[in-house]
Amino acid sequence: MFYRKKYLNASLCLLIGLAGAFKVNTSIHALGVYGLPAVFGCTYSPTTGTALNDLIINWQRVRDSAVVHSFYSGRDQLSLQSPDYQGRTSLFHSELLSGNASLRLDRVSLSDEGHYFCSVSSNQGSNRAEVKLNFTALYTEPKLSIQILGRKVNFSYESRGYPQPEVLWTDAKGRKIPNTEVSFSRVEHGLFSMHACLTVDCCHELNYTFTLKNQPLGQVIQRNVAFRNGAAEYLKDCPYQYWIRIAFAIVHGVIAPCYAL
After folding, report:
1. Which part of the chain is the Ig-like domain (predicted)?
2. What pTM did the predictor assign?
């Protein structure tokens, strides 16, 4: 009786030790870019005695337990997959037995942002870990609009992306220009439409730089707008039909006098 109890205790300790040794780790954060694939990193402790039929991998959305992707009995099992993810998910099958349970999600959108569970079970144990998908979108090439109001010029840039970026105007010496206007509105697919306006007196030489910074992606867009010496003298006489030509010139970095266009 004593030896049986001792054996059972030893077996229980062994099982607890095996379960404790089986680890699932995630990348904690994943970055998803609008329209592009994202990879949710997830690894587990592999062993040489594990076969594909012994492996169960389940990805779920945390907020409502929706099934994102399931794998068991040696193949993908997608009958219970949420319609939100149909046709968009895949595992790295050739690396499953090497401990890679990562998930690829195609065509990322804002609705995909949030927390996910990566659960892995094998003949060595079970465990799970959580990963958060952060959504972002590259800002588009800024579109420049110009409006001439008497002796003032209004420069306006419009661009779309996600999340709200840092926007600033600086002068030729790199000094930040105060009291500029920046506004945001939501557009299709949950993206932000950004409008940045700068209104200045055109009676002197102008040289300004527009900067947009999308921090999560490290995206920086800079565009320069400038007047040549003496151009302001002619802008007040520029008729409406020259505005488009002026806009073309400013995109290339410099506004020439009206008569030169």
Report:
1. 35-134
2. 0.76
